Structures
1.
Amino acid sequence: MLYSTALTALLALPGASAQLNKLAQAAGKLYFGSATDNGELTDTAYLAILSDTDEFGQITPGNAQKWQYIEPSQGTFSYDSGDVIADLAATNGQLLRCHTLSAAERGRSTPLRQ
């Protein structure tokens, strides 16, 4: 993702430690979070920043918990990709926020749900 790469580069700069989650909480917000996808978790610099609870108090799986990944073929369910991100959040003491658990695939309903 272009934005993740840019964010990683920006936060890796000397003196760019804004502690976004701490600032959000000081302003009365519950957390400052980030969305991520499994492929991004192989980047160690990115993972270190994402796991820093001073920066991010919450993680949202970008695609791993969407229908086409949970049930790739009818009757075959796999939560493995989503579990990786959920486990990361739990290990770090971060909140997990999910979205679009049953969103239509690319704007249309999948045959499995019709």
2.
Amino acid sequence: GIASQLHEAMCAWAAEREYHFSRMECHNGHRPILHMAIKMGYNIAGVRWDPDRSENLIIFEKDLSEFRDVE
């Protein structure tokens, strides 16, 4: 779908600019986004407290090496 196409484009753009990781945060209650992040290859890198919403944020991280051209 559109979200996966945008994600692929973002990862390719970041890898071309020599970024090594993509990181995102999601509130614990947003289950569809949590599932999507895991499906797209993100790993859970940590948790942080959001004092504004009194809720945990899940921190996701993905290695972008698969998007870099290997010469």
3.
Amino acid sequence: MKNTAESFLGVTDSIQEVFVNNQETSLTTQQQHQAIAQVLEAIHALNTAAQISTNGISQLKSGTEKLKITAEHLKLMV
């Protein structure tokens, strides 16, 4: 009887340990999910910033070309 009771306690302890390990694994998985979501959000923000920067560079190039043409016209007038 004593051995049977000790065996059941051992099984109970093992089950409890598995339960705790599963909870820790679940928590770790949730944290990894949140971290991945944050990385994806950062990548999206970088993509948006790159697009804005590219548009700004295009506008600057266009403005520079217009300024160059205007300067050439002014040279011809003088």
4.
Amino acid sequence: MKRRTFLVATTATIGTAWLAKYAGAADTIKIGSIYSLTGSYATIEDPALKGAKLAIKQVNDGGGVKGQKLELIQYDGKSTLADIANAAQRLVHEDKVIAIVGVCDSGFYLASAPIAQDAGIPYLDTGGTVPNLPEQIGEFAHMMPFGDDYQAFVAAEFAKKDLGAKTAFLLRDGDTDYTRAIAQFFGERFQRDGGKIIEESSYHTGDTDYSSHITKIRGTNPAPDVIYAAMNPGDDATFVRQAREAGVKIPIIGGDAFDNPDLVKNAGANNTVDVYFTTHMAMSTDNPLVAKFIDAYKAEYGVPPENAFAGLGYDSVNLMVDAMNKSSDLSSKAINDAIFTITSFAGVTGNADFSNKSRAPDKEVTIISVKDGKFVPIGNRKPAA
């Protein structure tokens, strides 16, 4: 089926708004979204937007919510804090949305969520994983993914139990909340379980030369059993390629930012041998819900979902729709209250329970191995107590 969409021009430089085009658009339910389609996070957030748009289409094809169609108003965050904050201002004050979904980085969420919080509008974080994000913002802030503590703990336990690692080298981007958090949590769990962090090194976002860090890795004697690389999209591929080309064959483990198409494209399939990462779902047809999502995504866009963030974008809209269907009315306050009544949301990225008001769902973490340039799931796990 041909997608019926149109673009609305804006006078600001922040981007364009995407809306689902249906008759009676004046009576639609406006949901805002902020995803970066340009800049460093485009490889993660473009699939997230596609997942969100697919969910909007399916809900509208099924009759909408309480007899009304959904309208998704999207702005390009351009991977910058200023543009993302401006997008939130526009959604709240100009577009008058009643709910927002979006962003896949904790810093992006912290730049935009206070604006929604002040206006009393529920804002579901699609992919930012700092575990206490909602507590930093307020009662209208919620998370779709697991927290960084979960994924880093699982990564540390995988390194110890599956790879047999006793020592680790910790490389982190020192500039972002996300990378500092997963590095900290990995180190805590790895050492709690008897491992040793034998060396650490920090770099700056966007660095293109990792030779000093690689020299430090190669100079460590004895060599570490694993490298935990707490890195952002783009930086990960550059480091992996340079490390492998310098002769570093040690297993490399990353976080969910590794789950992007450019990892293999820019690092090279031969250089991603013995590379692993944690993420939010496995693109496996063994799960009927996931298989249905993959088929629908392919039918809509001509390609399978590029990464797990497509699933998170899809789930974010569907969870907000679930809250709307459960709410007493379609006010932002009623929708927000309804989120806290959700006890068993079944999404493609896992089940979510918000009834304990933690606002960060208790989910399994997927471990991926890169083999022959493909992302191959190893399994889903939760961290040990």
